[in-house]
Amino acid sequence: MARITAGLATSHVPAIGAALDLGRTAEPYWQPVFSGYEFSKRWIAARAPDVVVLVYNDHASAFSLELIPTFAIGCAESFAPADEGWGPRPVPVVEGHPELAWHIAQSTILDEFDMTIVNRMDVDHGLTVPLSLMFGQPAQWPCRIVPLAVNVVQYPPPTGNRCYHLGKAIRKAVESFPEDLDVMVWGTGGMSHQLQGPRAGLINREFDTRFLDRLTADPEGLARIPHIDYVREAGSEGIELVMWLIMRGALAADAREVYRFYHVPASNTAVGHILLENPR
Ligand code: DHB
Ligand code: FE
After folding, report:
1. How many Å lie between the centroid of ligand 1 and the Cα of residue 50?
2. I need a surface site. Which of 15, 27, 170, 230 has the fewest CB within 10 A?
3. What is the crossing angle of helices 242-250 and 205-217, to 10°?
4. Is the CB of 15 within 6 Å of ligand 1?
5. Rounded CA gap, 121 and 117, in Å?
């Protein structure tokens, strides 16, 4: 049977992708960001998951304001890097896992989560930057990816609690997939940031630290935070953090924190990162 062995969360700041693609990771501004992922790169290389269910948000790249699915699962064979205005990132095409994706779609929909099924979708920095942070710059990504896009761009996004329970449904789905697969779930986006308006540049280290603490120790309570608290405390784009609760819901209640990293500044965003492991 397939099983979820671990999860992680990370910010997806597009400038991190540009720094990698342009060979600027050793510059004084970027070096502390990338050094924060060194442990994680070794950790994931050693664990070598077969599949990652990668929870992320599209930033009007694959979808537009004409069509905004709340939850959308990528069931295609592969997903091309999106052109976000300056050409696609020079990163490998993402290879999907259609059988597992369709199984998760069936299982979660029968569990009353109304997933949108996507058979063609380009993937933007929300998905490719986390892959680059964890895997560096390989010729091919080392595992298959099931993209799961969440609307956090247009109000109303799903609640943290809905996301947390979707995570639990994903765990049930994975654990009922007959193939023997080592699966990880990633939550991406965040942490505190606001890209526009009078509060642009907002960072809230205290909120972010408490979020990281509660993600492991008190996910049920954390899932109850209403949207308005995210927006007030973590900025308008801080709402991306609800995606971390999908990852958390997919892990065991007694999952263990393996590593965390927090760094300001990176572009406009507080970079946060955490690794969680299920008990064996
Ligand atoms: C930035 C962060 C994001 O999450 C995003 O989607 C775009 C830009 C930033 O920090 O610049
Ligand atoms: Fe974003």
Report:
1. 29
2. 27
3. 20
4. yes
5. 10
CA of 189 to the centre of ligand 2 (A): 6
Instruction: Say if ligand 1 is within 6 A of residue 59 CB.
Output: yes
pLDDT in tens, 237-263: 999 999 999 999 999 999 999 999 999
Compute the average pLDDT of residues 217-234. Answer: 98
CA of 45 to the centre of ligand 1 (A): 27
Q: Which residues are the active-site residues?
A: 125, 193
| Secondary structure, 3-state, 165-209 | HHHHHHHHHHHCCCCCCEEEEEEECCCCCCCCCCCCCCCCHHHHH
Give me the domain span that covers residue 109: 3-277
Assigned token pair, 139: 């010729």
CA 160 to chain CA centroid, nearest Å: 14
What pTM did the predictor assign? Answer: 0.98
225 SS3 class: coil
- Which domain CATH number covers 185? 3.40.830.10
Tell me which residue has its CA closest to atom 9 in ligand 1: 268
